[in-house]
Amino acid sequence: MLSEEDVNAKFYPCEAGDSEKLFVLIHGFMSWSFSFQSLIPTLVNHAHVLTLDLPGFGRSKKDVKYEFSYEQFTKTVQDMIDRREEHFTDIVPIGHSMGGQIALRLARSNRFVHRVVLLASSGDMQKSSKRLRWASRLPFFDVWLARYVRDRDVSHVLKQVIHDNKKVTTEQIDAYSLPLQENLMYRALSKFIRQREGDLSREELHKITEPVLLLWGENDRIVPVGVGRYLEKELHRAKLKVFPKVGHLLPEEIPSEVGEEIIRFSAGKERSE
Is residue 33 part of a domain? Predict the structure, then answer.
């Protein structure tokens, strides 16, 4: 059983007073809760906010005994919700990129989830190939993986995922570089390659009946807007909004706009367009 410290869980009480609404922020692959720092100030004015670092990522404990699957990630997120003394009757999971798959799974298992927000979510990724899963078992695969990742310049990667390169800051470069220095992270990633399921199938998506807000950057080169259109089509009650001149990191590129859309949607006040 993981503790709150093990996953760097942080709870931000609603600044507007008592609330039974909880926003649960779930980060993406090779990311961590830092990615939501600019979004939290808007959300916390309307509800409580919970963030965490999924096992293997960010400042979480890199326990290689953990099962690195979407289902287990979902159970860990649910466990962090259950540990709160507050009673939440309106839980809104907000998943970015890979985190979107966990948000959707949370909707299937938690009766207090009535709405879901997906930010540039993955949607049609298959599980890793048999060849890659086999390779991940080889001795020193994690060493090769560490060398491969560390050889990539973080500032260059950020300029690929953020549309306006001028918005890339030294703080972001330092924050995303920090977890990459932990050797245990690459052992965890090796297991994640083997244990990660594919994204939810069409049949599984069709079973999700909660309203889903899809927010996308028009210039997303990591998860193209076509994935958003696919999810809008396959989810029964989904609505897609695309922001021009925005890349993959919506919570950092346009936090105010994203926050406003989330607040409006979570209150049942979707804008008709």
Answer: yes
Whether 142 maps to a domain, the answer reads no
Q: In whole angstroms, how far apart are CA 81 and each of 48, 63, 90, 231, 245?
A: 11, 21, 12, 26, 35
Write the CA distances from 96 to 123, 153, 253, integer angstroms: 11, 22, 13
Query: pTM value?
Result: 0.93
Give me the number of domains the chain comprises: 1
Catalytic residue list contains 69:
no
CATH number at residue 39: 3.40.50.1820
The model's pLDDT over 59-91, given as tens digits with 9 standing for 90+, comes to 998 876 899 999 999 999 999 999 997 889 999
From 27, 48, 163, 248, the catalytic residue: 248
Which of 97, 122, 128, 136 is catalytic? The answer is 97
Q: Is-catalytic flag, 114?
A: no
